[in-house]
Amino acid sequence: MRSVPALVLAGARASGDPLCLSENVPSKALLDIHGEPMLARVLRALTLSHAVQEPIRVAGLDDDLLLSASGGMAVRAAVSAEGGPAASLMGALAEDVPIPLLVTTCDHALLTPEMVDYFLEQAIAGGADLAVGLTTRETIEDSYPQTKRTYLAFGGSELSGCNLFYIATPDALRAVHFWRAAEQDRKRPWRIARRFGPLTALRILLGRPGVEKVFEIVSARLGARIGAVILPFAEAAIDVDSTGDLELVRGILAGAG
User: Is the pTM of this model over 0.85?
Assistant: First the structure.
């Protein structure tokens, strides 16, 4: 499997992050996770992967914050842009960040090299312009029934995002542009579906197709082939968005330790 560059999105919410305020840190990247900054854990998982090139790029932090949050690991600052993760990604891609590219986020505190390798192997083999990592509700709740995640219904299954994306070709940017416009609706699947137009929305919402069919419909609408990679790791879907998430992640790592 060939190695690819990686980009970690670490920008802050425009309205401020209550979690950062409660933990008294200027960025989620600096949240203490088992004795080290959260970003450092993500960087280590990527570095130990067999499929990621170094140095890893990080978007969304100034030089001082990046130095503090990286834990001394080799990293390069990417150009940042305001407006959410998709805008930050577009800003980085507009400069020197190459394609193909693995994209993840600084709050992926439970990311492991095994997850990264599995995702990239499946994404590259799938041949899509853009691959999106997902995990089933069953996988997540079998291990962590107490966690609350956002699920999207596909046919007879429910899937949650894993903050892992593989941009294989420039055609994937059509999907990124769409996501930038739809980002405010990320917790409201019906609103996202409506952005594709009424007929496409009805096919998705009323037809209840499976995940492969949904991605096929969306791909045709956006003009880019989008594929799903279903990961068998419950931890892949647990990011740190709230105090409850932070407590869960710290508890998981304490138990593992």
Answer: yes
